[in-house]
Structure of ABC transporter ATP-binding protein:
Amino acid sequence: MLTVDGLEAGYAQSRVLFGLSFEARAGEVISLIGRNGMGKTTTVRAIMGMTRPRGGRISFDGRAIAGLAPNVIARLGLGLVPEGRRIFASLTVEENLVATARPRPGAQWNLERVVALFPRLGERRRQSARTLSGGEQQMLAIGRALLTNPRFLILDEATEGLAPLIRAEIWRCLHELKAAGQTILVIDKNLAEMATLVDRHHIVEKGRVVWSGTPGDLNRDAALAHRYLGV
Ligand SMILES: Nc1ncnc2c1ncn2[C@@H]1O[C@H](COP(=O)(O)OP(=O)(O)OP(=O)(O)O)[C@@H](O)[C@H]1O
């Protein structure tokens, strides 16, 4: 479904990605993991058209998408829950949800289903988004991405900085999405939670994928986890 092949990208003079490659098949949940600053967010930005790739190929359902505008890429069916949430603080919860919503014929996600997934959003529907807690804002960011009815959903550090109970709720939601067949790329630091969710991990080190395998493979290789993840 998504193939990233030899991706190169960076900012001004600094190179960040040096030929990064991975693949995600329909219905899979895959991860990018690795220490801070290794290029995970830059990879996501390149996929979503927010940072222009300097080399390599990105294809989605066989179509080359590298260098297309973000709105074009989103319309092809890629949805992002960005690092730092980026919700519209001055809008209400409901306005945030519908602002970028993209109903499709036979679409899976509508406002009612998102509210059923995150009942708190329903309770706070008419409140300004700035009055939400960090965890509720994160749910809003996920709900907003789902309402674009993405065929491929990317979550960049969606559980970072959240209280344990809220984090658990986010993981529950991701399990539900997986069970429904949603294809997902998740970037997160919580290996224990990802162990039951992710089909294949990809370790990113200095702008390249240096290892990929199942959570079981990773769990059996303590030296690998120590070397690349510092755990
Ligand atoms: N807008 C930017 N301008 C210049 N350099 C940047 C920018 N964003 C990120 N970088 C640099 O690019 C490198 C890779 O950052 P990136 O955010 O992709 O890493 P990451 O693996 O996602 O780590 P983190 O978990 O810290 O977000 C880092 O050295 C970072 O400082």
